[in-house]
Design a protein that fits this description.
It comes from Blastococcus brunescens. Pfam families: HTH_30 (PF13556). This is Helix-turn-helix domain-containing protein. The chain is mainly α. It has one domain: Arc Repressor Mutant, subunit A (Orthogonal Bundle). About 65% of the residues lie in helices and about 0% in strands. The protein has three helices and no strands. α1 crosses α2. The longest helix is centred in the last third of the chain and has 19 residues. The radius of gyration is 14 Å and the shape is globular. The N and C termini lie far apart (about 35 Å).
Length: about 60
Amino acid sequence: MLNSGGNLEASARAIFVHPNTVRYRLKRAAEITGVSPTDPRGSWTLQVALALAELDRDRSLWH
């Protein structure tokens, strides 16, 4: 949903699931993190967290 401009149906199509699945996953993400992905501030917070996690995953132990 973060990459589709907040469009739930477009998000569902992009990951080949039913829109209700996207709704459920967003609800679970909010329950687990305490941050709502449908709120603009929450969405931004999650985008930053995901970007930082990706950067950390890409780091090599040898650098």
